[in-house]
Design a protein that fits this description.
mainly alpha, about 0% strand
Length: about 70
Amino acid sequence: MNQGRTVFSQLIDFLPMHKFQQCVDRYEGNKGVRTFTCLDQFMCMAFAQLTHRENLRDIECCIEGEVKLLTF
Protein backbone atom coordinates (compact mmCIF):
# COMPACT_ATOMS: atom_id res chain seq x y z
CA MET A 1 0.00 0.00 0.00
CA ASN A 2 1.28 3.47 -0.86
CA GLN A 3 2.13 5.42 2.29
CA GLY A 4 3.13 8.55 0.39
CA ARG A 5 6.84 7.70 0.55
CA THR A 6 9.26 6.83 -2.22
CA VAL A 7 10.80 3.37 -2.47
CA PHE A 8 14.23 4.93 -1.87
CA SER A 9 13.00 6.49 1.38
CA GLN A 10 11.63 3.15 2.52
CA LEU A 11 14.94 1.41 1.74
CA ILE A 12 16.97 4.02 3.62
CA ASP A 13 14.90 3.32 6.75
CA PHE A 14 16.63 -0.07 7.01
CA LEU A 15 20.09 1.49 7.36
CA PRO A 16 21.56 1.94 10.86
CA MET A 17 21.92 5.73 10.80
CA HIS A 18 23.38 5.81 14.32
CA LYS A 19 26.36 3.73 13.07
CA PHE A 20 26.77 6.05 10.08
CA GLN A 21 26.73 9.08 12.37
CA GLN A 22 29.28 7.42 14.69
CA CYS A 23 31.68 7.00 11.75
CA VAL A 24 31.17 10.58 10.61
CA ASP A 25 31.83 11.84 14.14
CA ARG A 26 34.86 9.59 14.65
CA TYR A 27 36.58 10.79 11.49
CA GLU A 28 35.24 14.36 11.64
CA GLY A 29 33.63 13.95 8.24
CA ASN A 30 31.51 17.08 8.51
CA LYS A 31 34.33 19.31 9.73
CA GLY A 32 34.28 22.52 7.73
CA VAL A 33 31.17 21.55 5.78
CA ARG A 34 28.81 24.38 4.91
CA THR A 35 25.84 22.72 3.23
CA PHE A 36 26.56 19.31 1.63
CA THR A 37 27.04 16.96 4.59
CA CYS A 38 28.34 13.40 4.60
CA LEU A 39 24.77 12.13 4.89
CA ASP A 40 23.74 14.18 1.84
CA GLN A 41 26.63 12.75 -0.15
CA PHE A 42 25.86 9.22 0.98
CA MET A 43 22.21 9.59 -0.02
CA CYS A 44 23.19 10.88 -3.47
CA MET A 45 25.68 8.06 -4.03
CA ALA A 46 23.24 5.40 -2.77
CA PHE A 47 20.53 6.76 -5.07
CA ALA A 48 22.94 6.79 -8.00
CA GLN A 49 24.01 3.21 -7.31
CA LEU A 50 20.44 1.94 -6.99
CA THR A 51 19.32 3.68 -10.20
CA HIS A 52 22.42 2.67 -12.21
CA ARG A 53 23.63 6.20 -12.95
CA GLU A 54 26.88 6.36 -14.92
CA ASN A 55 28.27 9.86 -14.40
CA LEU A 56 27.81 13.03 -12.36
CA ARG A 57 25.68 14.77 -14.97
CA ASP A 58 23.36 11.78 -15.10
CA ILE A 59 23.09 11.77 -11.29
CA GLU A 60 22.36 15.49 -11.21
CA CYS A 61 19.63 15.31 -13.85
CA CYS A 62 17.98 12.34 -12.20
CA ILE A 63 17.99 13.86 -8.69
CA GLU A 64 16.78 17.20 -10.03
CA GLY A 65 13.88 15.44 -11.70
CA GLU A 66 13.01 13.59 -8.49
CA VAL A 67 13.06 16.82 -6.48
CA LYS A 68 10.71 18.47 -8.98
CA LEU A 69 8.32 15.51 -8.73
CA LEU A 70 8.31 15.61 -4.93
CA THR A 71 7.62 19.34 -4.71
CA PHE A 72 4.35 19.17 -6.67
